[in-house]
Specification:
Length: 400
């Protein structure tokens, strides 16, 4: 399959470095469901995205799309599986992410965030991404899994390398070099987790990997490959996504100082801010699916095998659901209806953890004294799916 970068995708990829893709996304939403070429349908309206994410004839096996390039790298984790395989794996892993398990992590997440802010206070400059948003979720997921502290930096660099490969590899002209590098990174992570899993099997340590080696549901257990794929999935799905929530959210707060002072006055306000940050500037902008059968969406014919590109960030600003969607308004009506964690069977497994990390990070941001965004220094990662700043320098008058 060649020449897939047709009108619609060009319109999308042109948005990659943009600090504000939302005018273009709004235009695509109005046009959608929109098929720029055979085999590809772009969907941006809220009801269509929400309906397709829950549709029984829509598959997550993206490599089955008619358009997909054979060299596109894809890992076989449960993000890409359909029921019943998906249901089985998800059931085994869900128990490790119950709200109770997550709530127990709160004191550790607070301690990590405090340490990061204390360390930042000793530096000359403050960069939201470098000093808080990026290390916080990586340290949390590493502690949760039981990755030793000495290996955290290595995982951080692997995760950054993988983030780019998440960006619709089906549609980008994935260069062979990039595909090879992604495969090599993936192999290094796999080897790393194989060793760690072996160590935890012989001496369990009360962490998530130890738990996953022992988890059982009605006689069912995780195979070695499933266990390793799950570790890799958690490191990749749990990191860059949360980095973007924290950075995009703090950016919105810096631009809306009144909202930031509500958390300073009352930390209980943080969860409403997190919900609005998720809606307003979605950390994951796109979820892709494949039509399993011929179907119609709003009079547009979709053929079996068509790749459906669901624009979650555009759906979150659909004025038919959200009043004055371009405004950042914490506590707004229907705030939690956003699709930032997707919907249906693949609804984000880490949503409670991500929400908690976001709330704690926003509270940490209130320690910045007179923070002012250095607009000229704000740059974005060249990634359409996982949207967030690469650098976000902020001038401060100290850190409390
Ligand atoms: C799935 C978003 C944080 C673990 C998803 C999906 C989205 C998403 C949109 C669905 C993908 C699809 O089906 O196309 C986010 C956002 C996060 C976040 C915006 C942060 C703000 C996390 C964290 C973890 C996590 C912290 C775990 C530590 C997962 C897993 C799945 C998933 C395991 C696959 C679920 C399945 O396929 O059944 N996430 N995520 N996520 N997320 Fe998250």
């Amino acid at each position: 399959m060649t020449g897939v970068l047709a009108a619609g995708i060009e319109a999308l990829t042109a948005l990659i470095p943009s600090a504000d893709p939302y005018p273009q996304l709004a235009a695509l939403r109005e046009l959608s469901p929109y098929s720029p070429q055979d085999g590809l349908v772009i969907v941006g309206k809220y009801t269509h995205c929400s309906g397709l994410l829950r549709h029984p004839d829509v598959s997550s096996a993206r490599d089955q799309a008619t358009l997909v390039r054979s060299e596109a790298p894809r890992s076989r984790n449960f993000l890409n599986l359909d029921p019943p395989d998906h249901t089985r794996l998800r059931r085994l892993i869900t128990r490790a992410f119950t709200p109770r398990v997550v709530a127990e992590l709160e004191p550790r997440i607070r301690a990590i965030a405090d340490d990061l802010m204390d360390a930042a206070a000793r530096r000359e400059t403050f960069d939201v991404v470098r000093d808080l948003a990026s290390p916080l979720p990586m340290l949390v997921i590493c502690e949760l899994l039981g990755v030793p502290a000495a290996d955290h930096d290595m995982l951080l660099s692997w995760s950054a390398a993988l983030a780019r490969s998440v960006d619709l590899p089906e549609l980008r002209d994935v260069e062979r070099v990039e595909a090879r590098e992604t495969a090599r990174t993936r192999m290094e992570i796999v080897k790393y987790f194989q060793k760690l899993v072996a160590r935890r099997r012989s001496s369990p340590a009360g962490d998530l990997i130890s738990y996953l080696t022992q988890v059982e549901d009605d006689g069912d257990t995780l195979s070695e490959n499933e266990l390793i794929a799950t570790c890799v999935l958690l490191v990749s799905a749990g990191h860059d996504t949360t980095v973007n929530l924290i950075s995009n959210g703090i950016l919105a707060l810096l631009r809306n100082p009144a909202a930031l002072s509500t958390v300073a006055d009352d930390p209980a306000a943080a969860p409403a801010l997190v919900e609005e940050a998720l809606r307003y500037d979605a950390p994951v902008q796109i979820s892709a699916r494949v039509a399993r059968t011929d179907m119609q969406v709003d009079g547009v014919s979709i053929a079996a095998g068509d790749l459906l590109v669901l624009l979650l960030g555009a759906a979150n600003r659909d004025p038919s659901v959200f009043d004055r969607p371009e405004e950042f308004r914490p506590g707004r009506e229907h705030a939690a209806k956003h699709l930032s964690f997707a919907a249906g069977p693949h609804f984000c497994l880490g949503s409670s953890l991500a929400r908690l990390e976001g709330a704690i990070a926003f509270e940490s941001a209130t320690r910045l004294v007179e923070p002012k965004l250095d607009q000229a220094g704000l740059t974005y990662k060249p990634n359409l799916t996982l949207r967030g700043p690469a650098r976000m320098p902020v001038s401060v008058n100290g850190i409390r």
